[in-house]
């Protein structure tokens, strides 16, 4: 079911007819609109206006555009720390606490800011393994080289 709000030029005649003493059913028949729609009068009685009011609650600290920008930057640079991302946000004139946008990243399934795994060079790995094998096991050098290269 689609919820469509009436424009202001249709709301105001409903309120005027109600002020003149007409009931909901007469107004709905005269203007050819549903009876439940005529209940806009309830809103007028409560707030004194038929204009759509803003939503309730505390406004978001980061607007949607900045949120998308932050998520894009964090996905592009997975090695960036939270402090670096905070500085990046500060450059876009959005100053928030680290925990605020840490929660935003968590909601976007970007969990931790971890440095990329860097493999050792082959020579360092080979030397480390041969040293370990010599110290730990009493095996010939020929066998060690064979097992490391495989």
TrEMBL record:
InterPro entries: Homeodomain-like_sf, HTH_SB, Transposase_Tc1-like, WH-like_DNA-bd_sf. Pfam families: HTH_SB (PF25787), HTH_Tnp_Tc3_2 (PF01498). Residues 67-120 form the Transposase Tc1-like domain. GO terms for biological process: DNA integration; DNA transposition. Residues 4-50 form the Sleeping Beauty transposase HTH domain. One of its GO terms (molecular function) is DNA binding. This is Transposase. It comes from Phrynocephalus forsythii.
């Amino acid at each position: 079911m689609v919820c469509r709000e009436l424009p202001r030029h249709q709301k105001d005649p409903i309120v005027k007819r109600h002020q003149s003493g007409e009931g909901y059913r007469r107004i709905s028949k005269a203007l050819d609109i549903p009876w439940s729609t005529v209940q806009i009068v309830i809103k007028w009685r409560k707030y004194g206006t038929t204009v759509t009011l803003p939503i309730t609650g505390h406004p978001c600290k980061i607007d949607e555009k900045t949120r998308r920008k932050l998520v894009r930057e964090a996905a592009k640079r997975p090695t960036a720390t939270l402090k670096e991302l905070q500085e990046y946000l500060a450059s876009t004139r959005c100053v928030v606490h680290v925990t605020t946008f840490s929660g935003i990243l968590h909601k976007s399934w970007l969990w931790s800011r971890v440095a990329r795994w860097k493999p050792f060079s082959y020579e360092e790995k080979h030397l480390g393994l041969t040293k370990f094998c010599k110290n730990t096991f009493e095996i010939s050098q020929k066998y060690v080289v064979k097992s490391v290269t495989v």
